[in-house]
Amino acid sequence: MFRWLRNSFLTGIAIATPLGVTLFLIISFVGFVDNVVKPLIPARYNPENYLPGDYTIPGLGVVIAVVLLTMVGALAANLFGRTLISVGERLVDGVPLVRHVYGALKQIVETVFSGKTNSFKEVVLIEYPMKGLYVVAFVSAEGRGAMQEVIGDDVIGLFVPTTPNPTSGFLLYTPRANTIHVDMSVEEAAKLIISFGMVTADKLPKTVRDTLPPDVTAAPEAAP
User: Where exactly are the transmembrane stretches of this chain (predicted)?
Assistant: First the structure.
């Protein structure tokens, strides 16, 4: 009976924890956006001011933010909007520190939303931080320019995330020959990293030795 109660309790935790954390993150995000957007709404245009009592509309700030972003995107799609954006970017380029921050953020956002790159679409293993230790890494970009001249052809950029927070990590450049391709999606690799390796993907190589070329894994001939 005690074992059954313990297993039922642990099962309940396993089911409720992801649901609770997901709901908490959603509620926190909605509350944060509401607190930022609602004070910007003029009082006579705020529908909450016309409700009886102290009622509030959860998610009102999110809805307004989505509408405003949609209007900005529609404005930027025509000639007038593109002209305004061009003038604004020229003004930003005149500010020494701001132009570098704006340029870097713009390039990152355009790369993520363009869908024309292979960034973070391939998972590999690489020896890091020392020989004999392997970590999961994401191919972020093909190495070009100075990196290609220094390291050589077929160099790639790798993002090695930290555990359990995959949003931070290290940027490495190495020839592709130093990596081992893993047949798993980015989502599966992210689950592996976030869970401290407890959610193991069945597509990981059983041993690194199995992935090496035959001439490397072959036993050395006996010396005469």
Answer: 12-37, 57-80
Q: How far is it, in rounded angstroms, from Cα 43 to Cα 36?
A: 15
CA distance 124 to 137: 5
pLDDT digits (tens, 9 = 90+) for 93-140: 888 888 888 887 877 777 666 655 556 778 999 998 888 899 999 998
Angle (nearest 5°) at CA 81 between 109 and 60: 65
The pTM of the full predicted model, rounded to 2 decimals, is 0.52
Contact 102, 96 (CB under 8 A): no
Residues of the chain with pLDDT under 50: 213, 215-224
Q: Is residue 189 part of a domain?
A: yes
DSSP strand pairing (123-127 vs 134-142): antiparallel
Question: Cα(60)–Cα(43) distance, rounded to whole angstroms?
Answer: 14
DSSP labels for 211-224? Answer: GS-HHHHSPPPPP-
Q: Is residue 153, in this structure, part of any structural domain at all?
A: yes
Residue 42 lies in a domain: no
Amino acid letter, residue 80: F
Q: Name beta bridge partners: 170.
A: 160
Domain that holds residue 202: 123-210
Q: Bin 160: left if φ > 0, else alpha if -120 < ψ < 50, else beta.
A: beta
Per-residue model confidence (pLDDT) at position 114: 61
Cα separation, 112 vs 108, in Å, equals 6
